[in-house]
Amino acid sequence: MATTSNEHQDRLMPQGAAQPYAPYSQQNSAHGCDQVAMCQQRGFFITLEGVEGAGKSTMMAEIERYYRKQGIPVVCTREPGGTPIAEQIRSILLTPNSEENITAMSELLLMYAARVQHIEHKIKPLLQAGTMVICDRFDLSTIAYQGAGRGFDLELLERLRKLALGDFAPDLTLLFDLPVEQGMERVIARGKKDRFEQESVEFFEKIRQGFLSYAEKHPQEVVRIDSSKELDKVRAEVLQILATRLPLELS
Length: 251
Fold this sequence. Notes:
By secondary structure, the protein is α/β, with parallel strands linked by helices. The protein has helices spanning 5-12, 35-41, 56-69, 84-94, 104-128, 139-149, 154-165, 180-190, 201-217, 231-245, and strands at 45-50, 74-78, 132-136, 172-177, 222-226. α3 (56-69) packs across α10, α4 packs antiparallel against α5 and α6 (139-149) packs across α9.
């Protein structure tokens, strides 16, 4: 017998309130090891978030260079994407299709399908091998884009995240924030827009507020960085945050 949409949602959603997510490097820690000692066993997971044109890709290269100079193994990746199957899903999500629009629910579920593939087949194996992983977008983008942008209930997203990811979460998220208009100017300068970049300014204003709202409520997880400043100033702030929040001595 076919189930109703409500019945289907009930099956997707675990019962009870979702618990806070522990950073990956703190999960399964043995006998109270401190954070630096844990990173010697497992890599740290850093995610970069922000509206379109916020400068995440530029800062990812700077962060990668910073850790490589210290002799720390590091891999950069992205979402949606990161594995062969996840990259195929990325193409579906980002390519404009005049013949068939992707529904908001399909978009949401495809994001999580790609994310699970990415985590299980790339991110977790790298972290378990002691490699630092830096990811351009992760689950906070779903809260901002599909939650604040598309209007999905945040409680539903929390339950879906719990179902798909369990307690897996980044050790640190850097939120690169700037006015939407400034970000879109950068997007236009890059050339052809993808499916998301074609959305309205009003859509991205909602997304920006979604990012900022989450960051304000979760200061231990997310650090906001004003990426409207000059590149050198943004770089200096990022490196200072990394030195303070994730003090690594692995070389």
